[in-house]
Amino acid sequence: MSPFKRFAIAFVVTAAAMIAGLAGGNDVGWGTLVVAAAGAPVTALFLAIAVAGPGGERRRLTASAIIGGTLVPVLVIMAAGVLTAAVLAVVTPFADAFKAGLGEAGAGGVPERLLTGWALFVFVEAAIVAPLAEETLKPLGALMRRPRSRHEAFLFGAAAGAGFAAVENLLYASTGLAVSGVGWLPVALIRSAGAGLHLFGASLISLAWYERRTRPDRPLVGLAAAWSTAIGAHALWNGLIVVANVAFASDGIQAGTNASIRWGGALLVMLAALGAMALVALVLVARSVRSGRPVMVTEPLRALARPVGITGWSVAVVTLLIPVAVAVAVFPSVVSL
């Protein structure tokens, strides 16, 4: 079976599971939940394999995905606790000073609430700690399998990212199932928009690590650029969700449905656009790997400026807008997660 057929089948199966979830709600079986939640990153992995071309041993690729979905989450949880305490110790004094300045200037609102108590903790954990820990540790799934080519480095990194994303999506969806009034499907729909984010970051860093290992004379700036790009994209994604939720929580009680539409719509557009950029960037890096050209961090941005890149990005935005739009329209409570 060709890689593109595998991608098409994975896409159809995932979409069917989400449709089944939409029809059956929380009454559907665990199998449907697992496919709907984990299907998006697996589908993105099949897309990356189809574009880059299959290569390497399948068992080593599978091993990378397993490491990304088992060992890496454990290490991330262990690192997150230490990092959160350290970052909060550094950030809290600045946040307090900034919040005091906002109060004196009469410019409170959402920025001030974002810097207060629990909201500050969530923002630090989601927008700083999680991207740092996850993007640093996810490539272990590829590096532990010792890729023997740039092609393998990319594929193993993408597989590790897919394994991690699948497990993370399952945890979030299961939490949504346990939370009254939310359900698992809106969580799965929202997170499907970011299917390419984990794969892009892990594959880019894995590729940069491989190039650095095989050519020690190369400057560290390439690895640093890949690492910071992955962290930056992840931080932006998480930060958008936290800010939108804080804004909705503060305005939604008074404004009701109008606030839900406003913040839900804004979150929908931003997440779909960012998720589309990550997915298109993953495809562009896969194409570069297949052609044998050096992969530059800025290459996806340059490619997006071309007509073909603009078309691909536009199609991806529209495609990713659909599941998130369904989540916000059918389940307005999703914006308060």
- The Cα radius of gyration reads 20 Å
Strand content is: under 5%
**Overall shape:** globular
Q: Tell me the major beta sheet.
A: none
| pLDDT averaged over residues | 78
The overall strand count is: 0
End-to-end separation? 40 Å
Secondary-structure element order, N to C: HHHHHHHHHHHHHH
Supply the number of structural domains.
1
Instruction: State the helicity in percent bands.
Output: over 70%
Low-confidence parts? 252-257
Helical segment count: 14
- Helices and strands: which structural class? mainly alpha
Can you describe what's shown?
The structure is a single chain. 83% of the residues lie in helices and 0% in strands. The chain has 337 residues and is an all-alpha fold. It has one domain. Helix 2 runs parallel beside helix 12. The chain is globular and about 50 Å long. Mean pLDDT is 78; it is low at 252-257.
Name the features.
337 residues; mainly alpha; globular
Explain briefly what this protein structure is.
With 337 residues, the protein is an all-alpha fold. It contains 14 helices and no strands.
Fold topology:
Layout: H1 3-24, H2 30-52, H3 58-69, H4 71-105, H5 110-114, H6 117-137, H7 140-143, H8 150-178, H9 185-192, H10 195-214, H11 221-255, H12 257-291, H13 299-304, H14 307-330
Helix pairs in contact: 1-2, 2-8, 2-9, 2-10, 2-12, 3-8, 4-6, 6-11, 8-9, 8-10, 9-14, 10-11, 10-12, 11-12, 12-14
